[in-house]
């Protein structure tokens, strides 16, 4: 037996017991004829004391960092206690020891604040995984999965495995494909999600399905994407949107409780997609703080039911506002005393290419009730005051105004709001605020193809009140410039996203379950009948044999864990992540394959110059 | 809300309650002005009664098999109770109903004994999944996974996800590969198992790891193999073989309890690989019954320490036994009165190509103490009696004897033993008997390459007492005919298989954890230093930084479920299985991909004529 106890469990009550421990040498400290070693394993650190009798043996077999050793000894109370760790009141007086395995000097320190750079830590991921910071992340990940499984089990969900070697679909230009040796010339695809399978399981009557499952997408990787990622994938039958929202806010609240010991009793807020865009400039607002966007001048083509305050800023000879498609403002609390240097810095910030604005207008709402702006020569104090009123600015606030084309300006204002929220400490890692965003548009306009694409996916049902609009109108867009006037632009989906602290952590929809409507949807997306049958014939077929009403959602498991762990990077929560080129640096994968493999698969390379 | 209750939960105590149910129409029976419908969902079946008032509406909207309907009504006690189902004492007197979705007539009946053939049921798998028999299998599968997770959690194991897009390794000719769009000319491989990753996790100090994980192998499919299959994959640090055996027989016993309500208190039997081969003719013996093989004439080259009884059969002018490499016998209890027709049938059975023997010798141990054999002209009754003694045959038994080349004869005798066990009712679905098979050979001889291959995998450690034999001997086999005399032939591995009712359900080993020994192993398998570094450099590297002693095992999850469910086919326990050509008949996958995909992946077909 290699050990009687772990390095994390011995306490003062165990004093005088003889034990055997095994683990890694964290540190070696020599004081005269005595040597102290911190022995580490997954469970903790225990101090070892090698007395004078063992020094000769130690000299002959010196211990280095990360050596794996086994020691036998008895537990004694420490004179110099370390109350920062649970085992800090005891130490092991070692009788004998054995080196189980040596270690070369690690390329970086195995400590919370390591000296290793990203690349080095990726290459030696097995050493990086030893660091407490990384271990805590994987422990949190396991806790989230365990909590999820327990909740869903109690709610009657069944974990059912769906296949990984499936059929390439158009969901789907970004499928990874797998050549089949037994079926030369043919390929499997790896699933981007188990979407169609979970719907088939509902047709099969499984009623409540879930899976924590790997999904694959061969897309150009942004900083925080991985070619393989994990979803908590769920589906339910005989449900309406309300049933789903209740079920899954219950899940997230349970995770909060189990993993973070947070009682999230309040009702989860709900917001329409239109309100999210109007008030926060994006569809996943961080509602831990206010600072809502004021649409001073709204674009003429969208938000038809919303109020316009353009009169406040136009007609004052300020060409920027006169010409802008939209003018958006936020009132930043308590920042009216920003210096010139500070406002200049903010102006530079919005001019960065990632934000892409040409400038920033500000109005200081001074504590004494006066107003001071960067556009004083165009606007009287009275007009500034009126603007302050519609932006809900209080005295002491700093109003920041951006103007320009609708999409870019809205995005920029949203980014600016998030940036100011961060700078002012409104976005705390340990404060969690959930939100449902509802009533997404069913379609998005694809400029390149001058056609409609499914915003969520082609299986999402329209709002019942919009079904006739979809069925009765031709999807063809006659005039690309006026696509917003097409009836499809206003069709809303039975779709919902769950947002946590400004991140989309999950999303789903009530699905189409009638063959006719599904066919109509495929047609609306420009798919021919033949194409639809070729790609989704099995699903259309299934809908002919008694498909129940159903819906579901999927959580991005990696991101959920990252947010709960207070991190911005999902990579920190994946045991063996890939880098931005989709490479596993440790394995050196992907890599070449040999001629025999090409030969058996009956494919060859066709490399471009 | 679509329903207030499920179709499985209402009882007599609920009588007079008004409820809403939704589900599938299982049957429609009309009796005069009354219509009975059995409504089915995942949870059960509830009888609906449509009274006279609803017949006109029913006539206008007739219900068919598998229609999805919603009904409102009140619960009443049935006059004609069906005590075979939990809801059989009540029925719903329907007030109103709605057809949620119609169904075409299913291509086969949704019943336990369906009229659908294999192909049809695979094509319409979503309908096959509705059948109670299939649903029970998937429910059992979920119960096994849940039990596994609970046990391993309690034992301190962490579920850690390992990557699916990895590097092609030689473990290994049967890797599925995945072309990388971002790294043209390079390929990922899908894992045949997470073997190296779980070992790296041990190097990282995770101590106890598990995963229920999909694995992939592109091999020619036999009747009961799938290109993607699921493993319960586990690894532990600071353990010896004994720790692992105890931990995982605990797991299987827990599964027995949770899933089958079986208390398996007895100690799990253990047997060396050599004894398994000697006594049962294979390495996964079904020990629910005896009928052990008697090695009358043992081959000269193997089993050097075992007793030989050749003198009993040789030198009697019976050329078959004289010339045979081996002569093996089993005593079949109570079959001494087999007729000529019965023994002839057995002879034909062993002559089938799958068994491949040229004939069968039998000895009847008659109840009156006399002996009668098919080789009476060669053997005196005295000699027959002596043979009966060494085979442990009792009066009333039938001794069956096969003779020929070692491997084929042993395999045939093993099959014959299993067949007789089945015929005599010794192999009951509801009786479970576990067995550890230990001390497997480390190497197997590969005739084609005249070299050693790893029997388990190249990471399995030799028995400590055999390490020097491995290190000190050149792996080269000078004389292929005498490979058994090479010292490597006798090296035993620290490897173990768990066997349940004659099926290998899991296997594993104590791993090599020293770089030098691992390098020696790669060399023994004929791998050059360069090749070893190219393929497993990351693992060899990891072993330099303090790798702990570790070991583990993996269970074949699909097979375990099949055996627990009393089935011979794993396919019945997989929601969406593939057929023997690796095809998903429902999806029609694999399939062709389009030119754009070839173009982006920079590969093309290279089909043979």
Describe this protein's structure.
Two copies of one chain form a homodimer. The mean pLDDT of chain A is 95. Chain A contains 16 helices and 23 strands. The radius of gyration of chain A is 30 Å and the shape is globular. Chain A has helices at residues 55-60, 118-123, 125-128, 132-154, 195-203, 241-260, 273-280, 319-323, 340-351, 381-390, 406-423, 467-472, 515-524, 529-542, 557-564, 595-601; strands at residues 18-31, 34-41, 44-50, 68-77, 90-101, 158-159, 177-179, 187-189, 208-216, 228-237, 269-272, 294-297, 326-332, 361-365, 371-373, 398-404, 434-438, 443-446, 451-454, 495-500, 503-510, 550-556, 603-605. Chain A has 609 residues and is of the alpha+beta class. The longest helix of chain A is centred in the N-terminal third of the chain and has 23 residues, at 132-154. At the A-B interface, β1, α3, α4, β6 and β7 of A face β1, α3, α4, β6 and β7 of B. β23 of chain A pairs antiparallel with β23 (603-605) of chain B, so a sheet runs across the interface. Chains A, B: InterPro entries: Aa-tRNA-synt_II, aa-tRNA-synth_II, aa-tRNA-synth_II/BPL/LPL, Asp-tRNA-ligase_1, Asp-tRNA-ligase_1_N, Asp/Asn-tRNA-synth_IIb, AspRS_core, GAD-like_sf. Chains A, B: Residues 138-577 form the Aminoacyl-transfer RNA synthetases class-II family profile domain. Chains A, B: Belongs to the class-II aminoacyl-tRNA synthetase family. Type 1 subfamily.
